[in-house]
Queue: 4 jobs
Job 1
Amino acid sequence: MPPLDAALRLERAFTCDPANLSVVSVLDGGARLLTAGRDGVLLWELATGERLATFQSRTGSVSRVIGLDDGRFLLAGDSLAVMELDAGTEHALQAPWFRRGMLFAVSADGARTLSSPDRTTIELRDLASGTVIASREPLLGTISGPPEEQPGLSCLGYDRSHDAFYAEVSWIDLHMYSASRRDYYDRTNLTHLGTDDQNHLEKRPAGLWAMIDGARVAVGRADRKLATTEAHDGGVALARILLATGTPRLISAWGDGTIRIWALTEPEAP
């Protein structure tokens, strides 16, 4: 393991039903936390661990939440809906093309969606009407190796800095590490805009990434140095690790329903 240069200090912890940890997302620069799952969408105050609100969703058990530029959220479960979180209102979308677990992404303004019905085709749609605007095969390419190691479509997303959709293709490289390539597509007609060969699979906000080996939580920086802390007992099974903005902190959500907030501290001088 790379040398340790920092430590994680537990600041506070609170619990919720593990069934409501399918989604964990930091809001308002780390002031609030959104979790979602079987009971819909739950809103928490991070400073106290107090549950601020619970919103039932008509989409069923929520498996994904996507924030839009106007403050609304797209909820995905058995169906799609748009929620205004502070108002607690939800508008169901007519989306017979959608199914739980499929790859899809939404533009920041909520007008367009990119989805893949079979991981061999990508479709650009008007989100409100569901009308297909354009479709094409993603650029998979080939590498040296057996068929099971060839590139495959692994992720669809929307990049605000490019104002474009992207399709992420991944494969196993010669050193048995996951590698990936990101292709960007025009949000209006699916024209291919360019390729980014950087490996995005381990990328996290602010250049940090997180991992768990069953006993420890680890945070790596671009210099490959790690900060670690021992995991707690009680059915440890990581749901999400996220980095809150501002002061470096980690928010870990565990399979036992415990949410913990950690501060990243620098080592003491020798």
Job 2
Amino acid sequence: MWGLLRHVNRFDLFSVIDNNLLESLSLKRFEIFIAVLIDEEKQQIAEMYKSSLATFYMWFDEQASQLRFNIVSGHVTRLPFGCIVEVVNSVEPIWQELKKSYSNQGISWSELEFVEDDEDDMEADKEYTLKVYVQKI
């Protein structure tokens, strides 16, 4: 697990390729993984900076099928997303989206359609709601 944490810290994303691994990932194990990850980040911030105020935030990127997180200095109230953000109080909704994504077989290339960018698409992006777990560290 520690090797994985070092890998995760370097790239700020986590991608599960093995469906068997994801199927065995319980909510409790996921919560422990995230808690250890946040603790590691806290320690790194404390070692590198005099001020240890930071904000950790995490979401599931459905399009890339990746668990993503970021840490910004200070305690922020506005996150850098172009859509509606629903701040969730636990990691469970993020875990549920991760599990749901991998249980879906996906869309085949033949089912995709080419779409031109237009104003309606930009408005639809603003209406999309993204669940984000936020923790001040």
Job 3
Amino acid sequence: MFDFQHAAAALGEVIGTLLLMAALVAVLEVVLYLILVRWRHIRLALPIMLVAPAAMGIAVFYIYPLLWELNVSFTKMNLSHFVAPGFLGIGTGKNDLFLGLQNYINVFTAPVLQQATFWQLLLQTII
């Protein structure tokens, strides 16, 4: 059955996120205007100001997930044990999640990589 309370809460979070993003873009534009137009008198200030929010959005939506996955890769978190890992899984409770480089060692020494070659796996990834 459809739960209107959860839908309203989710809609509230989406609206809050959009308002936060709009406020951050407005602050970015004001700062760029003050720096580029008022202080530096740069002739190409308008194109820079128009591209800056998109560039910042792309950077945030690409860089943040990469850093998150790098953080998770040092922990023993998986789909059956999914918790907020914290920073490198340290201090997340009685069972710390931090494994260090053990995940990377397992990737290169596990039977999956010993049975298949790099090129076979690359071809399967491409296909």
Job 4
Amino acid sequence: MQDSGTKCRRMAEKYDILKYKRAVEGRPGALRIAVVDDLARDRAGLLAYLQRFYSSDAMIFEYDSGEAFLRDYRPGDFSRVFLDCCMGGVSGMDAANAIRAAGDDCSIVFTTTSRDFAVDGYRVRAAGYLVKPYTYEELSALLLMDAPRERPFVELPMGGAGVRLLLCHILWCQAQGHYVLVHTAGDGEMTVRISFTELSALLLPYPQFLVCGRGCLVNLDQVKSFSGSDFILHDGTRVPIRQRESEAAVRAYADYQFRKARGEL
């Protein structure tokens, strides 16, 4: 009999959600929300409430099934996900388990016709439940109590203005002359007019970032494994490790993972 962790991991692998998207349509820095419900009327009602609450400060994506959501979803895509518990096929609880199996700590809110799923919701660290039919006041009270946790970011110069980029969305960076190419989860590749030295000064104070070669910097949270000459990211990208620095880079990665497992970071 499979344990719950194995079941969740296999579901995550089935829908290939352990890889990151190269590009996602949207405004950099906007709050991204997913609404997953197989009833069009319920989706429309929640969408109207969310638009009323957030005005233009959020991007909302609708899915009519758990399967459709998991096919499109990648870790880090959303700050908050609303899941109907009782969908046919992949249920909201199944989708929530897959989200957590992928290491995503986004806020999960269940919409349901009963509270029978409370114990299961506790296991996936659900932020709350909305029992249908619910009011705008009930939704807004939940959202005010469950403000998305503060996530560190950097502000990078783009087109004469500053663009805020969450650190967890940075995969790796490489110098290109007077620019740096920043590879991200969600916003694709961003060419930033900044020197590699300046970018390193912004990122290296955070323990998850490591310079692994000349003009090359990697987010260790995005590393799945390593070979003799490369870090291998969750999306399969190979980030080169400078040969003479390979031993130190691998040691730094192992030390970071150990400290993270101990809860020191």
